[in-house]
Automatic annotation (TrEMBL):
The lineage of its organism: Bacteria, Bacillati, Actinomycetota, Actinomycetes, Kitasatosporales. Residues 190-206 have a biased composition (Basic and acidic residues). Pfam families: CRISPR_assoc. It comes from the Bacteria. Keywords: Plasmid. InterPro entries: CRISPR-assoc_prot_Cse3 (IPR010179). This is Type I-E CRISPR-associated protein Cas6/Cse3/CasE. SUPFAM superfamilies: CRISPR-associated protein. It comes from Streptomyces zhihengii. Residues 156-178, 190-215 are annotated as: Disordered.
């Protein structure tokens, strides 16, 4: 496994065009691999994410089973004179092998929090439909609901009022979900762009209607976690979490807790 950081040169018009189109950026990431890994769910897949860096820099992070070649991106949207390649690739597999159950890490995850609903006007027994979580509380609830299966637990906020505190305070409501955990949600962005008709039949993330717009809601979680199931957690890091992975969702990265 490899983790690559590519610094985007936002002063270039071609870079701005890429940033404005998750579909174009997805295609550019795909082109970094002469033989893209299969997406059948059996092995690690290519994941990517855009990260805001200090001084208004934007980095493209890519997790991948194979080492990428980003020469085309450096020429189109990067800094060809930055270093020998214009990007930096780390030996991610060595880092993954050093992880241990019980380890605590700071994390960042950009994901597509959603759930499945059946609307009141839908006929009884009709299939449920995907719907995005729109509020901070529901988006955090989505992460907490899926954390056990993903092999981690978000650390609680020890300074938040507990349920016992609220019960002792007659009439007090349960503390909001966002107060209970060492977690913040930001860059909560609805995403919408036209689907390319030639790809419409092969994209499960998209609408089943050829040519329809692709719509989802993206949210970035920053927080602290503890690893509870090492095998499941490594799978989360290499396979991604949630839907819309082709469009910059699902990649979780770690950093030492400060």
């Amino acid at each position: 496994m490899y983790l690559t950081r590519f610094r985007i040169n936002t002063s270039r018009s071609s870079a701005r065009a890429l940033l404005a189109s998750p579909q174009r950026l997805h295609g550019a990431v795909d082109m970094a691999f002469p033989k893209p890994p299969p997406r059948d769910g059996n092995g690690p897949r290519v994941l990517w994410r855009l990260d805001q860096a200090p001084t208004n820099r934007i980095n493209l992070l890519i997790s991948s089973p194979d080492r990428p070649d980003l020469t085309h991106l450096a020429e189109q949207a990067g800094w060809p004179t930055l270093g020998t390649e214009g990007w930096t690739t780390f030996a991610y597999g060595e880092f993954l092998n050093k992880l241990a159950a019980g380890g605590e890490w700071a994390f960042r995850l950009t994901a597509n929090p959603l759930h499945y609903i059946r609307r009141e006007q839908d006929p009884p027994g009709s299939p449920t439909k995907r719907a995005p979580h729109m509020t901070v509380g529901h988006q955090i609830g989505w992460l907490i609901k899926h954390q056990e299966r993903a092999g981690f637990e978000v650390l609680p906020n020890e300074q938040a009022p507990t349920d016992n505190d609220t019960k002792a305070d007659a009439g007090a409501e349960e503390p909001p979900m966002q107060w209970r955990y060492q977690l913040v949600v930001h860059e909560r962005t609805p995403v919408r762009f036209p689907q390319r008709a030639e790809r419409s039949k092969s994209r499960r993330e998209t609408s089943s209607s050829p040519g329809a717009d692709v719509r989802f809601t993206r949210a970035t979680f920053d927080g602290q976690l503890r690893i509870t199931d090492l095998a499941a957690f490594r799978r989360t890091l290499t396979h991604g979490m949630g839907k819309s992975k082709a469009y910059g969702c699902g990649l979780m990265t770690l950093a030492p807790v400060r």
